[in-house]
Amino acid sequence: MPLATSATTDALAHTLASLRGLTPDEVVAEALRAELEREQQLHPAASIEDDPTVEEVLAWIHSTGPWNGPNSKELVDELYDEHGLPR
Questions:
Q1: Which of 17, 35, 44, 63 could make a disulfide contact with 24, Cβ separation 3.0–4.6 Å?
Q2: Contacts of 14 by beta carbon, 8 Å cutoff, 6+ apart
């Protein structure tokens, strides 16, 4: 499927193509490949092998110990008065 281009982009592609002896499609593809390579070097894709397994996540959760914070009733009581209005 062809990409929509502006008149400016088209003119730039034709000018660069004529300087390099290539077609406009070739210079655009070359530029996109080079830019993609630069981005991939800056932001290497995370491998799925780097993601923790469910078992590892559960082990981490269990290693943190029991919850010592307020329970849901205490949180609600802190936010709302006895009439259900915000404090």
A1: 17
A2: 24
